[in-house]
Each structure stands twice: as structure tokens, then as C-alpha cells.
# Entry
Amino acid sequence: MAESVYRVTELVGTSAESWEKAAQLAIETASSSLRDLRVAEVVKLDMTVENGKVTRFRTRLNVSFKYENE
# Structure
């Protein structure tokens, strides 16, 4: 296997529906500008609350992608 270098960056996705939807949206959005996404690790789940009701689910992800050789 060839040697490789990966970058890890943090993403936060939000959704009114679920944590899973928030994560999915974050990955889909990032993949439109980043190529070769490799691994996504959920590092934190939280939500916003207004007037005693959950209004948004937030999923924080660490995502890795491979640097390309020029």
C-alpha cells in the first residue's frame, strides 16, 4: 500500500428532523467541494431548545480526506 497523507476537519450539520439527517447533510454538503472523503466520526451530538421544545439537532463530525499528489 502506498504511503498517504490525510486531513481531518470538523463539520457541524443541523437538522430539524434528526441527528442522522444532520450528519448526512454535513457529509453531502462537504462532498460537493471536497473529494475522496474517507471517514466520518461523530464526536458530539447536541440540540437547540426553544420554549421547552427541541428545534434543531446538531451533529459534530470529524471528517478525513486524502491529499492528492500533484
In short: The first strand starts at residue 6 and ends at 15. The CA atoms of residues 17 and 57 lie 7 Å apart. The chain has one helix and three strands. Strands lie at 6-15, 37-50, 53-66.
